[in-house]
Recover the amino acids of this structure.
């Protein structure tokens, strides 16, 4: 008899928690439960489809799924299909790794208009998440306002700006890619409330904006006569100083040198959104599509005896995929200490069943096969019915 641990949420933090547990207790039985029939959380549905190198972390997670005592239970939403209490009764410990991706609101009038999209809804749409199959109508979109100064804002601007050729080897949903390619895009404005010295872009992602085939990156020179805050710790200061250098390069670019521009505007707070325009503290600009990239919130994770929380569900929506590793390993040590003080529960196998790892591998195989003739890494199954039909072997 050994302890059984349920991990709810098969995203990075859930997998890293499993990894942390198995390092010290390879005898544990671990069930990874996800509401989707596909594992990997935001690696599949958040990370930009043109960043396949980042998505490759899934291979590490696959190695965990291949372990005999790690099982995947897909298409099971805890709190809907099974209560948290019911789950806790069957397992010796429960780890909550459910993430946190409800788009935060700007809190300005006009935010509910149909041309205003939160970044999660937008990115989930182009990444093929089955809950977000309705995207914005791009057919008449010339001007886009992307609000936010983090890497998700860069993802959104870049994915709209890249040409079909640049997106050809990605796993963007093909229809979404076609809608972007057909849109009459002219300008994407990336809007920051504060100055460029506070932007949280990382250097490589910002520099990538200067290498887009059909789009020229621009920035307002007047805003760039600043230095990275001296009070910041050295790595932060260096990152910000490098960002300023990259932005100064953008400020030197010729505005009409390419059919599309991605323009970085700072010190511009959104005041109101109206059809076709956005009012900023610096003036009103045209905007046929507004994408807010200002962070996420989530529901309070459950608590209780033997219940532990990891990842974005624990820390809030901050940190990259690697950040979750150390955090999840630390929580895994707490879980092991807890288990060490208890005898394993007896009783029938508590795992809720719907789809399993074999089902995910059938989806994976079908998607990769669909990508081969197109030279893409995969073409995703994007609706619940196809995902479940393939996972269940129909
Ligand atoms: C748009 C976007 C782009 C990003 N790009 C990058 C990047 O390029 N590089 C990088 O390092 N980081 C990136 N990140 C950050 C990275 O994705 C997160 O650090 C990481 O995914 C957090 O892991 P997690 O396991 O806590 O949550 P998630 O990845 O969100 O996983 C949570 C899982 O829980 C499941 N779930 C939720 N509720 C339930 C429930 N009730 N029952 C069962 N299952 C449930 C979900 O389906 C999901 O699979 C990005 C984030 C976003 C939002």
């Amino acid at each position: 008899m050994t302890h059984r641990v349920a991990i709810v949420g098969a995203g990075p933090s859930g997998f890293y928690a499993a990894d942390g547990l198995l390092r010290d207790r390879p005898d544990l039985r671990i069930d990874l439960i996800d509401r989707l029939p596909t594992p990997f959380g935001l690696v599949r549905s958040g990370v930009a489809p043109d960043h396949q190198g980042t998505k490759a972390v899934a291979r590490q997670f696959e190695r965990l799924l291949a372990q005999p005592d790690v099982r995947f239970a897909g298409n099971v939403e805890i709190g809907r299909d099974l209560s948290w209490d019911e789950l806790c009764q069957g397992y010796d410990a429960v780890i909550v790794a459910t993430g946190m991706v409800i788009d935060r609101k700007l809190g300005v009038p006009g935010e509910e208009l149909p041309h205003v999209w939160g970044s999660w809804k937008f990115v989930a749409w182009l990444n093929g998440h089955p809950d977000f199959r309705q995207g914005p109508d791009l057919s008449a979109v010339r001007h886009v306002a992307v609000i936010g100064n983090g890497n998700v804002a860069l993802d959104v601007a870049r994915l709209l700006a890249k040409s079909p050729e640049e997106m050809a080897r990605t796993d963007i949903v093909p229809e979404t890619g076609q809608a972007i390619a057909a849109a009459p895009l002219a300008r994407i404005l990336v809007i920051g409330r504060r100055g460029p010295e506070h932007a949280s872009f990382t250097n490589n992602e910002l520099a990538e904006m200067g290498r887009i085939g059909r789009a020229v990156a621009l920035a307002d020179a007047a805003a760039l006569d600043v230095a990275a805050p001296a009070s910041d710790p050295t790595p932060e200061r260096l990152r910000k100083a490098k960002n300023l250098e990259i932005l100064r390069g953008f400020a030197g670019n010729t505005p009409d040198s390419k059919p599309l521009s991605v323009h970085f505007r700072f010190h511009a707070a959104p005041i109101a959104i109206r059809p076709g325009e956005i009012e900023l503290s610096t003036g009103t600009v045209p905007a046929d599509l507004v994408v807010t990239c200002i962070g996420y919130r989530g529901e309070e994770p459950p608590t209780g005896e033997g219940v532990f929380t990891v990842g974005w569900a624990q820390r809030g929506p901050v940190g990259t995929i690697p950040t979750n590793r150390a955090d999840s390993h630390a929580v895994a040590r707490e879980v092991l200490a807890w288990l060490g003080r208890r005898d394993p529960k007896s009783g029938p196998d508590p795992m809720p069943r719907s789809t399993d790892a074999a089902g995910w591998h059938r989806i994976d195989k079908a998607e990769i096969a669909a990508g081969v003739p197109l030279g893409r890494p995969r073409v995703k199954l994007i609706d619940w019915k196809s995902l479940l039909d393939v996972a269940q072997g129909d």
Summary: Residues 8-14, 33-36, 41-42, 46-47, 51, 54, 77-79, 97-99, 101, 119-120, 123, 152, 155, 311-313, 319-321, 324 surround flavin-adenine dinucleotide (CB under 6 Å).
